[in-house]
Write a structure and sequence with these properties.
This protein has about 400 residues and is an alpha/beta fold. It contains 17 helices and 11 strands. Among the domains are: about 150 residues, Rossmann fold, CATH 3.40.50.720; about 70 residues, Orthogonal Bundle (Rna Polymerase Sigma Factor, Chain: A), CATH 1.10.1740.10. The structure holds NADP nicotinamide-adenine-dinucleotide phosphate.
C-alpha cells in the first residue's frame, strides 16, 4: 500500500487525486493533506481520509482549521506556512508526494519532496519551469522518482522507453498537443475584451483558474515546452506544439525510424493521475473509456503565434534559458492574477510579460537562493508595470 502526501488537495488536481484514491482503497492511504485557505474543504477531506497531518499554507487559518477539526472530533496534527508544507512534503511515513499546489508557491515543497527521496508526482509545472535543473539534480541525488501528472508530460512519459530520458532513445521530436483553449476560433479583435469567466470556461478540461487563463493565452503550452525540456532532457528545438482541439491525443513521441507513439484517452485528469499513482501497474481511474467511433475525427493545426503571443514569448524563453523562464513565469503569475482581479484586460497579459522580459538582463541562476532572487526581481518589475496596463 502506498502512503500519500497530497499538496494542494483542495484544488482541481487534488480533488481528482482523492477521487482515484477513493476508488482504490486497498492501494493507497493518505498521510498528509494541504490547502492554502480552504479550511472547511480540508477538514471535510480529513474526516474522510484521516491523514496524520493537515496543513494550511496561510498561518492565519491555522486556528480555524483546529476549530473545524474539533467540530468533527478529529485530532490529527496540524501545521501551517511554508514550514508546514515542506513538512508534509518530506513526511517520513509518506512514500509518494502529489505536488499539486498552483504556481511558484509549489517550488519549495516540491524540492523538499525530491530531496527527501520520495516518489514525486508532479502537477506543479511552475516548479519545473523555475528550477527544473535543481529539481532533476535533487531527484538524481536523493534517489527520488519523478512521474509527471501534467497530461501531456504523462503521455510523453508513457511513450518513452522504460520511462527514460530522450537521450540515446532514438527520439527525433516530442509533439506536444494543445487544445488551443476557449479562444482558438474567436475573432482576433474580440480577444482584447474577454472576461475572466470566459477565459476560465475551458472547452475540454475543468481546471483551476490560473491554469485555465494560461490555457486561454496558450502560456500553458509555453510553460509545458520548458517543463518537457527539463523533465526529459530535450532541447526546445525538438519540441513541436501541435494544436489538437479535441484533446484526445495527449502528446506524441516521434522516433528516428519513423514511428510515432501517442497516448490517447478522454480528457480527464484522473487518467494521468491514476497512471502516476500506480506506475508501473495500472488501476481504475473512473475516467470514461475512449470510444473512437463517438470521437469520429481528430484535427491538427499549427499554433498561431500572432494570435497567442504568450506562446512565442515562452518559446523564446525556452531557447534563451538561464533566468528568462523564471522571469517569464513570475511576470505571467502577476499578470494572470491582475487579469482575474479585473485590473488589466486579457490582451495586457502578453503585453505586460513582454515589457517585463524586455528589462531582463541575462544571468544563469543555479542555486535556490539565486532562483528565488530572480523570481522576486521579476515580480517587483511586473508589479511596477501593472499601472501602465490598467483598465
Ligand atoms: N487542473 C488541471 O487539470 C491541471 C492539469 C495539469 C497540470 N496542472 C497543474 O497543477 C497545479 C494545480 O492546478 P489546479 O488546477 O489543481 O489548481 P487549483 O484548483 O487552483 O488548486 C490549487 C491548490 O493549491 C493550493 N494553493 C494555492 N495557492 C497556494 C499557496 N500560495 N500555498 C500553498 N497552497 C496553495 C490551493 O488551496 P486553496 O484551495 O486553499 O486555495 C489548492 O489546494 C498547477 O501547477 C497546474 O498548472 C493542473
Amino acid at each position: 500500500m502506498r502512503a500519500l502526501s497530497i499538496l494542494g488537495s483542495t484544488g482541481s488536481v487534488g480533488l481528482s487525486t482523492l477521487d482515484v484514491v477513493r476508488r482504490n482503497p486497498d492501494g493507497f492511504r493518505v498521510e498528509a493533506l494541504t490547502a492554502r485557505r480552504s479550511v472547511t474543504d480540508l477538514a471535510d477531506q480529513c474526516a474522510e481520509f484521516r491523514p496524520a497531518l493537515a496543513v494550511v499554507a496561510d498561518p492565519d487559518c491555522a486556528g480555524q482549521l483546529r476549530d473545524e477539526l474539533d467540530k468533527r472530533d478529529l485530532s490529527m496534527a496540524i501545521a501551517s506556512g511554508v514550514d508546514g508544507l515542506t513538512r508534509a512534503a518530506a513526511l517520513p511515513q509518506a512514500d509518494t508526494v502529489v505536488a499539486a499546489i498552483v504556481g511558484s508557491a509549489g517550488l519549495l515543497p516540491t524540492l523538499a519532496a525530491a530531496g527527501a527521496g520520495k516518489r514525486v508526482l508532479l502537477a506543479n509545472k511552475e516548479s519545473a519551469v523555475m528550477a527544473g535543473g535543481l529539481l532533476m539534480e535533487s531527484v538524481a541525488g536523493s534517489g527520488a522518482t519523478l512521474i509527471p501528472i501534467d497530461s501531456e508530460h504523462n503521455a510523453i512519459f508513457q511513450c518513452l522507453p522504460s520511462a527514460g530520458a530522450v537521450a540515446d532513445a532514438g527520439v527525433k521530436r516530442i509533439l506536444l498537443t494543445a487544445s488551443g483553449g476557449p479562444f482558438l476560433d474567436l475573432a482576433a479583435e474580440d480577444l482584447a475584451n474577454v472576461t475572466p469567466e470566459q477565459a476560465c470556461a475551458h472547452p475540454n478540461w475543468d481546471m483551476g483558474r490560473k491554469i485555465s487563463v494560461d490555457s486561454a493565452t496558450m502560456m500553458n503550452k509555453g510553460l509545458e515546452i520548458i517543463e518537457a525540456c527539463r523533465l526529459f532532457g530535450v532541447e526546445p528545438e525538438r519540441v513541436q506544439v501541435v494544436v489538437h482541439p479535441q484533446s484526445i491525443i495527449h502528446s506524441l513521441v516521434q522516433y528516428r525510424d519513423g514511428s510515432v507513439l501517442a497516448q490517447l484517452g478522454n480528457p480527464d485528469m484522473r487518467t494521468p493521475i491514476a497512471h502516476a499513482l500506480a506506475w508501473p501497474d495500472r488501476i481504475e481511474s473512473g475516467a470514461e473509456p475512449l470510444d473512437l467511433f463517438e470521437v469520429g475525427r481528430l484535427d491538427f493545426r499549427e499554433p498561431d503565434l500572432e494570435r497567442f503571443p504568450c506562446l512565442r514569448l515562452a518559446m523564446d524563453a525556452a531557447v534563451a534559458g538561464g533566468n528568462r523562464p523564471i522571469w517569464l513565469n513570475a511576470a505571467n503569475e502577476i499578470a494572470v492574477q491582475a487579469f482575474l482581479d479585473g485590473q488589466i484586460p486579457f490582451s495586457a497579459i502578453a503585453a505586460l510579460i513582454a515589457s517585463v522580459l524586455a528589462e531582463c538582463r541575462a544571468s544563469n541562476p543555479a542555486t535556490l537562493v539565486e532562483i528565488i532572487g530572480a523570481d522576486e526581481e521579476a515580480r517587483g518589475k511586473s508589479r511596477e508595470k501593472l499601472a501602465d496596463f490598467a483598465i
